[in-house]
Amino acid sequence: MNHPDIVIIGGGMAGASLGAELAAHAHVVVLEMEDRAGYHATGRSVAFWEETYGGPVVQPLTTASGPMLSAPDPEFHDGSFLSPRGTLHIGRPGDEPLRDGFLTAFAGRVDLQPVDPATLVPGLRPGWTLGVMEASCQDIDVAALHQSYLRKLKRLGGEVRLATRLEAARREEGGWRIETRDGAIHCGLLVNAAGAWADDVAMACGVAPVGIVPLRRTVVQIDVPDLPSPDLPLIMDMQARFYFKPEGRNRIWLTPHDEEPSPPCDAAPEELAVAEAVARFEEAVDWRIGGIAHKWAGLRSFAPDRAPVYGFDPTAPGFFWFAGQGGFGIQTAPAAALLGAAMITGATPPATIASVDSRAYCPDRFR
Q1: With contact defined as beta carbons under 8 Å apart, do 195 and 254 qualify?
Q2: CA distances in angstroms from 314 to 66, 101, 210, 287, listed in the order given
Q3: Cβ distance 130 to 112 under 8 Å?
Q4: What's the predicted TM-score (pTM) here?
Q5: List of residues 6+ apart from 32 with CB closer than 8 A
Q6: Where does the chain have alpha helices with state H?
Q7: Are strands 168-172 and 113-115 parallel, antiparallel or unpaired?
Q8: Using the 8-state DSSP alphabet, how is residue 36 labeled?
Q9: At CA 49, angle to CA 211 and CA 126, rounded to 5?
Q10: 120: phi > 0 → left, psi -120 to 50 → alpha, else beta; which?
Q11: Among candidates 326, 37, 319, 33, which has minimal Cα distance to 203?
Q12: 27 contacts 6 by C-beta, under 8 angstroms
């Protein structure tokens, strides 16, 4: 059927989650340009839920998503998507303003406790004297969450069309005409959930971009034969130069926290970024490295103010933005999808997202 009510461009976590929440109200078709959904940013996540990640504007979405991730409807998923981890934010002398600003920004919102990091991380090198513990941080089973949304979408009558790229689209009476290599699709509402390609999709539809920029993030999986414990917290540098966390008994996921502008693409790691990641890791701990097991890169896409972009474009009727989630699109997915669905249908937002103010994310802030 090429006359659905809603077409969503992008089958990653954003498109799958929003599509699943809309499918009970309308016939939804998700167009995914790759041979499988979630190939890009969704499939390359370091996979944690951390309330402070993304800053105070993102935190309400993350916090609201927590209960839905930890205790989902059994029909949606049997069991929790989360498992305990915790985050230890570490710093050195001179980082006190960063620590104090961090504590102030989330006071009354997130439970943050100043600690001595050396007591929590065996092998932490001298000089790392500042610590803040964020105990609520959890690991996320990203693949299970994404697949649960895709199953819900299909169970409610929605479709996912793989290897189907939007070539162009234009407004017509009653909605949009979308051109693909497999023919035209007519719909009433077009949703841009295209991640790194969000501005390109907008321009292909004759809609002005909002300035979403893809930034490359490198991740390295290293062997650490003498890892003190697989249950250590996620460790984040207060200066945002690295973070790492155990992944299994003797492996670490590590990133130099790089953000290199990139065109939308199948991102690949740069050797310099890999070397920087390892060097920064060795600055932090004295753990012996056995070798690099794997390395990859993904694109994190940010609007100019680094807040997500959710809402109807004020200059293009029937065009809805659901993009710019940066590196926090996984951990905010449940709340963001409910918020986006309420904005589209006009329904009263459910109580689970009552604390989220959608005005902070509307695209008209760029117009």
Answers
A1: no
A2: 31, 35, 12, 53
A3: no
A4: 0.96
A5: 10, 11, 15, 160, 161, 162, 163, 164
A6: 13-22, 59-70, 96-105, 142-155, 198-204, 271-284, 333-345
A7: unpaired
A8: S
A9: 100
A10: alpha
A11: 319
A12: yes
Task: Write out the DSSP string of 251-312.
Answer: EEEEE----EE--SS-----HHHHHHHHHHHHHHB-PPP-EEEEEEEEEEEE-TTSS-EEEE
Q: Are 185 and 172 in contact (CB under 8 A)?
A: no
Q: CA 31 → CA 120, 164, 288, 316, 344, distances in Å?
A: 46, 6, 45, 20, 18
Amino acid at residue number 52: T
Residue 103 structure tokens: 């504590």
CB 14 within 8 A of CB 336: yes
β-strands 6-9, 189-192 pairing = parallel
| Number of residues in the chain | 367
Chunked into runs of 10 residues, the chain (367 residues) has average pLDDT values of 91 98 97 94 86 96 98 96 98 98 97 98 97 98 97 98 97 94 95 98 98 97 96 98 95 96 95 97 97 95 97 97 95 98 96 94 94
* Residue position matching structure tokens 């004297």: 129
Please give the Cα distance from 318 to 174 (Å, whole number).
9
DSSP string for 308-336: -EEEE-TTSTTEEEEE--BT-TTTTHHHH
Burial 182-199 (b: 16+ CB within 10 A, else e): eeebebebbbbbbbbbbb
